[in-house]
Amino acid sequence: MIDEGHRVTSWPFVPGLDGAGVVEQVGEGVLDFAAGDRVLALFTPGDRSGSYQEYAVVQEKDVAKIPARWSFEDASTLGVCYLTGLMALGIGLQTPLPFLKGGPTSGLQPLSVLILGGSSAVGAATIQLLRLAVPECKIIVTSSPKHHAHIKDYLGADEVIDRDSASLSLDAKLATPGSGGVDAIIDAVGAGSMQRDIFEALDPGGPRMYAQVWTGRKQIDAPDGVNSILFRGRDLHRLSGNQNIMKSLEQLLVQGKYKLPLPVHKVGHGFTALERGLELMRRGVSGEKLVVSI
């Protein structure tokens, strides 16, 4: 948003999609929250609703209470990656979401899925959500080797493959039941634009689904015979039960069914630390979430 102007209609502009803090005041129609509640929220970049400021105004449906055991720093990293992971399943793969009130109840229940970019926040969230949605699914994930232990031992993926493997598609195929290939691919990082051979991991006789998270680049063209679905944040209305997304996250946190997707890197305190965090992002961040306390 800052460097390239994505979603910016005019300047000055207050960015920030994720955040957590204390409720200071509620509107007359708010029923589930009160001043003093510890919460996380989905923020909307703009003058009043972006998270890069001390106070922000958000809608009740975009807020979730934080269990006492969760810190603000950890909770502030959950919203967008959780939302995107839900969309990857509910829109991208058209998979049932039994933990989302009003969510889809029928659709594809894949036997195996390849998630590209498991050390990204979206990838790490999607691993957990897919396990909740389709417990018996074989979850195969790509990442750099330094993140393999976190993805398999902590997040619960069945297999993790080196993202730079010269035989990535074959490795994924061999990890599937029957070795025919995966039913679907979820591309959290746009890997399909460069690693064209990943589509060979799809089972020729399967549903051949390819869910691609919009990363700010052009849509990735999938080979003939592949059911490719691109989705963006603005497509949330297409997901049934979308009004209950944060309520479902709140319940999963209370039940202990959803973990912190990635380790948190506390960049610093105060608005000057935002600049340091942004510079770290420009250099490249892998396997962690940057957090600034305001």
UniProtKB/TrEMBL annotation:
<feature type="domain" description="Enoyl reductase (ER)">
    <location>
        <begin position="5"/>
        <end position="292"/>
    </location>
</feature>
<dbReference type="Pfam" id="PF08240">
    <property type="entry name" value="ADH_N"/>
</dbReference>
<dbReference type="Pfam" id="PF00107">
    <property type="entry name" value="ADH_zinc_N"/>
</dbReference>
<keyword id="KW-0560">Oxidoreductase</keyword>
<dbReference type="InterPro" id="IPR013154">
    <property type="entry name" value="ADH-like_N"/>
</dbReference>
<dbReference type="InterPro" id="IPR011032">
    <property type="entry name" value="GroES-like_sf"/>
</dbReference>
<dbReference type="InterPro" id="IPR013149">
    <property type="entry name" value="ADH-like_C"/>
</dbReference>
<protein>
    <recommendedName>
        <fullName>Enoyl reductase (ER) domain-containing protein</fullName>
    </recommendedName>
</protein>
<comment type="similarity">
    <text>Belongs to the zinc-containing alcohol dehydrogenase family.</text>
</comment>
<dbReference type="InterPro" id="IPR036291">
    <property type="entry name" value="NAD(P)-bd_dom_sf"/>
</dbReference>
<dbReference type="InterPro" id="IPR047122">
    <property type="entry name" value="Trans-enoyl_RdTase-like"/>
</dbReference>
<dbReference type="InterPro" id="IPR020843">
    <property type="entry name" value="ER"/>
</dbReference>
<dbReference type="GO" id="GO:0016651">
    <property type="term" value="F:oxidoreductase activity, acting on NAD(P)H"/>
</dbReference>
